[in-house]
């Protein structure tokens, strides 16, 4: 199911700053990573989807609704977690999330129930009756996530959810987001400038730079097995290189490794035979998968 | 909290119940704001000042009612109560207005509000209504106590009670005028800063600094300037209207002459302008 569709989406702020330029993308449900450097236009994209900022050109549809015209309908189905600090220090998390649930239109009892549910899902239990001012950064991030989740949205927009967290906190937050996407049946857009972080949990990825789309695709297609075998031996890399070249295999050297373009499955056998003939210790023979990051570095250099 | 993020697997429940409209949101934000004005649902510290002011006002009203019932003398009329309490009202506004709006600015909570169906106008109306209601209660409840004291000890029976009611109801209206004017100005000033202390200082400054101007204008030799002097300060503005409407028995003793309607027009414009400025301010804030 396609949840977000944009066509030629452009946003120019007063003063001629272009935040988004001609962004055309169609996003399927699931966990979506929105990556880009600071100032790439991620936050502007989110604001447009929430109907907070009108686009200067092009169209955007969220759940086939126009955020500019059907703002309330869109916002009822979307939860937003801002990047900045947004919690008052002098109320308890339970009270605060309940209040925001009511601001989403939930009746009093439902708001209270869903607030404690949401806080439980993000892993806050008895602490939720304590004042937010005394929370750690990790707990605050969880409260921010809980308030986005409290009105049971169909789509979560998370702006830098791992900001300011230590590595353990990051992992916990990411697995929580993955859980929300996979088990709760809620689509999630995760904004981040750290590609390595989101690629672990995302089904698809949108990369933008300078307001332009770099690439949007499913992670599975991006990390498709490439036709290269990596071979690593203890010593005698040179001899193996010579032997393989002699057989007419296209070999390149990459540090201690040899990369062999795989033309057919027979390549495995031929490499193995060569290694055995030379009596070398084989350390590694595997099919190389592209890491998403590599794709982008390539793409980026091409762009520049 | 367990940093490892262990979550009990009870499963996620979807919500299929009702989602209320914007009117209900406004109402809910209004109630929330009115409670916050008196520190309800907040820490004990937040309760001290509003209840101190409210306590003084209630005590004054009780004393006035007691004197009235013992001696039968009316020291301060219902409407005059608002006038004589004007400095306490300023104090109250300086405490409560920052609580209602500066706090949200400071904590950065506004994006959470405005990413929900709530609009900037809803937010402004709800906060304004909460502030005005809080000030009105601050005046209206003591006035009601004064009424009860007078009504129960009246020696003229039902007729006496109706006499008192005839004094109370216009005074409630007068209190509402105080409430609307002060709520608008207080919120507008507070909406420009996230620092509660600055906001409180700014509010007190605006209200008090304008009083000397009135004094200077009132001492000029021109009677026109004297008559219009009260326009310079919100307190004397409202006092002037009270004086005009009551025909001189209430409000501040200002030589407003025939300028009464001008006072009324300015008050209406002042309330309208503060509302429009608040709306403009929050339109800007709402776009984050």
Descriptive overview:
The complex is a heterodimer of chains A (304) and B (288). Chain A has 304 residues and is an alpha/beta fold. In chain A, 36% of the residues lie in helices and 29% in strands. Chain A is built from 11 helices and 13 strands. The longest helix of chain A has 16 residues, at 167-182. The longest helix of chain B is centred in the middle third of the chain and has 34 residues, at 120-153. Chain B is 74% helix and 0% strand. In chain B, helix 2 (44-71) packs parallel to helix 6 (120-153), helix 6 packs antiparallel against helix 7 (158-190) and helix 7 packs across helix 11. The chains are: A alpha/beta (304), B mainly alpha (288). Chains A and B meet through helix 2, helix 3, helix 4, helix 5 and helix 6 of A and helix 1, helix 4 and helix 5 of B.
Secondary-structure class of chain B: mainly alpha
Give the low-confidence spans of chain B. none
Q: Report helical residue fraction of chain A.
A: 25-40%
Radius of gyration computed on alpha carbons of chain A: 24 Å
Question: Can you count the beta strands of chain A?
Answer: 13
Strand order of the largest sheet of chain A: 5-6-7-3-8-9
- Gyration radius of chain B, in Å: 22 Å
Mean pLDDT of chain A: 85
The biggest beta sheet of chain B, please?
none
Short summary:
Chain A: Belongs to the ABC transporter superfamily. The complex is a heterodimer of chains A (304) and B (288). Chain A is of the alpha/beta class and 304 residues long.
């Amino acid at each position: 199911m396609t949840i977000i569709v944009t066509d030629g989406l452009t946003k120019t702020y007063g003063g001629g700053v272009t935040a988004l330029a001609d962004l055309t993308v169609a996003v399927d449900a699931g966990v979506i990573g929105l990556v880009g450097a600071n100032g790439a236009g991620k936050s502007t994209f989110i604001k447009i989807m929430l109907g907070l900022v009108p686009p200067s050109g092009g169209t955007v549809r969220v759940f086939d609704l126009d955020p500019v015209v059907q703002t309330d309908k869109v916002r009822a189905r979307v939860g937003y977690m801002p990047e900045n600090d947004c919690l008052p220090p002098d109320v308890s998390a339970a009270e605060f999330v309940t209040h925001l649930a009511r601001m989403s239109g939930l009746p009093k009892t439902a708001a209270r129930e869903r607030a404690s549910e949401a806080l439980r899902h993000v892993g806050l239990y008895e602490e939720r009756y304590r004042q937010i001012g005394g929370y750690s950064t990790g707990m605050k991030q969880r409260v921010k996530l809980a308030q986005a989740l409290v009105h049971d949205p169909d789509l979560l927009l998370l702006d830098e959810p791992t900001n300011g967290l230590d590595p353990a906190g990051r992992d916990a937050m990411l697995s929580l987001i993955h859980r929300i996407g996979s088990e709760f049946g809620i689509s999630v857009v995760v904004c981040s400038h750290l590609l390595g972080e989101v690629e672990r949990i995302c089904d698809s990825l949108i990369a933008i730079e300078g307001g332009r789309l770099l690439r949007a695709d499913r992670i599975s297609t991006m990390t498709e097995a490439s036709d290269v075998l990596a071979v690593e031996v203890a010593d005698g890399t040179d001899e193996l290189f010579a032997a393989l070249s002699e057989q007419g295999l296209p070999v390149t050297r990459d540090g201690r490794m040899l990369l062999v373009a795989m033309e057919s499955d027979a390549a495995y056998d031929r490499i193995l035979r060569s290694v055995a003939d030379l009596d070398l210790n084989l350390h590694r023979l595997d099919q190389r998968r592209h890491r998403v990051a590599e794709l982008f570095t390539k793409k980026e250099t091409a762009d520049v | 909290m367990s940093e490892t993020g262990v979550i009990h697997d009870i499963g996620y429940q979807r919500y299929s119940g009702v989602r209320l409209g914007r009117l209900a949101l406004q109402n809910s934000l209004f109630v929330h704001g009115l409670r916050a004005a008196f520190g309800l649902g907040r820490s004990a510290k937040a309760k001290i000042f509003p209840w101190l002011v409210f306590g003084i006002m209630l005590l004054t009203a009780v004393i006035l009612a007691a004197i009235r019932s013992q001696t039968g003398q009316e020291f301060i009329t219902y409407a005059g109560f608002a006038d004589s309490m004007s400095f306490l009202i300023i104090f109250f506004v300086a405490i409560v207005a920052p609580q209602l709006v500066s706090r949200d600015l400071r904590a950065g909570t506004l994006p959470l509000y405005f990413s929900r169906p709530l609009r900037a106008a809803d937010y402004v109306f709800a906060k304004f209504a909460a502030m005005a209601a809080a000030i009105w209660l601050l005046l209206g409840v003591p006035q009601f106590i004064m009424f009860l004291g007078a009504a129960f000890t009246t020696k003229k029976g039902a007729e006496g009670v109706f006499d008192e009611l005839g004094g109370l109801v216009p005074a409630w209206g007068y209190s509402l005028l105080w409430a609307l004017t002060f709520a608008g100005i207080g919120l507008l000033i507070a909406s420009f800063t996230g620092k509660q202390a600055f906001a409180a200082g700014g509010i007190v400054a605006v209200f008090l600094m304008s009083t000397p101007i009135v004094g200077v204008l009132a001492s000029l030799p021109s009677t026109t300037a004297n008559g219009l002097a009260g326009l310079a300060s919100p307190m004397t503005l409202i006092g002037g209207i009270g004086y005009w409407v009551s025909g001189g028995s209430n409000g501040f003793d200002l030589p407003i002459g025939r300028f009464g309607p001008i006072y009324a027009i300015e008050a209406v414009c002042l309330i309208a302008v503060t509302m429009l400025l608040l709306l403009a301010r929050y339109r800007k804030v709402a776009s984050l």
